[in-house]
Amino acid sequence: MDFSARYVALGDSFTEGVGDPDPARPNGVRGWADRVAEQLGRDNDSFGYANLAIRGRKLRQIIAEQVDAAVALQPTLVTIYAGANDIFRPKVDIDSLMEDYDAGLAALRATGAAVVLFTGFDSRSSKVFGTMRGRTAIYNELVREIADRHGASLVDYWRFGEYHDWRMWDRDRMHMSTAGHINMANRVLDVLEHERLVPTETEPGLAGGSTAVARAGRIAALRENAQWVREHAVPWVVRRVKGTSSGDGLSPRYPELTRL
C-alpha cells in the first residue's frame, strides 16, 4: 500500500481527535490520526499530513466539505469515518446516506489514493447508545460492501473488544480517551501493515478514561451518572433539538499538508 507521501484524514470528532487533549495543537486535541501521521512520517522528510475532520459533522457534510478538499491535496492515503452523527438522530435513511458515501469513496479512489474505512463501534455496553446497535449493524454491513466495491481497506471497530473497557473512553462516554486513541492508532497502523507506536513513559496508558463507573460502589456510580447527565448528555440532546453542533465555528485542524 502506497501511503508514504501525503496522508489526509476526513471525518467528525472521532478523527479530529476529541477525547485526546493537547492544548498546544489546533482545536486543543491530538487524536489517533495525528499519531498515525507521526508514525508514518517518522523516517520520511517528504511526508505531509492534513486533517480536515470537524466534530459534529454528519455524513453528507463530510462528503460536501471534505472530499473535494482532500482530492485537491493529491493524497496517497485517505482515512474516512462518517455516519455516526447521523445514526444517533431520531430519524435516518441509512440506505440513502450510504449511496452518498459510496459516491464520495469513488471520488477519493479515483485519485489513486489508498483509502481506509471504519465500521461503527458495537455500543452494547452502553445503556444510552446501545439502543442504536441495530442501526450501526446495518451501517457496518453497507460499509463493508462499499469497501469491497472500491478496494478500500477496513478498520473493523465493531470487533474491537478492548473498547468495552471504560478506560478506553473519555469522561463524556461518547469519545475515546487518550488510551483509546493510542489503541486506535495502532489498529490503523496494523491495517496499513506499518510498525506500531512505541509506548513512552509520558503516555497515560489506560488511566485516562472514565473508570469511576467501572470501579465505584453503587452510590458513587449513581453520583457520577448524574454528573454525566448534567455535563454531557443534556448538552448533547439540547444541541440536537436546536440543530446546532459542537463543531460550529471550528475550522479543520490541518487544512494543508504539514509535517507534525
From TrEMBL:
Protein name: Lysophospholipase L1
Top-rank lineage group of the source organism: Bacteria
Occurrences of domain SGNH hydrolase-type esterase (ranges): 9-181
SUPFAM superfamilies, alphabetized: SGNH hydrolase
